[in-house]
Predict the 3D structure of the following.
Amino acid sequence: MLRYLPFLLILALWIYAFIDCVNTPESQIRGLPKVIWVLIILLFGEVLVGPVAWLVAGKVRETAGGAPRGRATWVAPDDNPEFLNSLKSEKADAEDEARLKDWEADLRRREEELRRRDDDGTPNGPGQTPPPPKD
């Protein structure tokens, strides 16, 4: 069983490179047209030249931030204009202000209700009894 492992690994790399090449947009392919890359992968797949060439030189690889490899620069959020603009959204600010006003009004209403309960001598919370009358 172990003697088939190298063949299976080569086949897996061959299939991966072929599917990756076919699914890659033309704008992200370097050097040669997509059809030529597919032919190179298929013709030279058994000796790993085609798939390895595709993985190394055929596709523009991107980093996690979306910039092409080798040219990636990390930008702190407070220096990133796109991030800062997303924070300044007028609609989000208006929604946040409205939500804050609703919360404040609800808080005032609850505080007033608690004050009324205290004045009436009713319990302040669950399981509490009113204070005994003073002599």
Observations:
- The chain has a mean pLDDT of 81.
- Residues 90-120 form the longest helix (31 residues).
- The chain is about 55% helix and 0% strand.
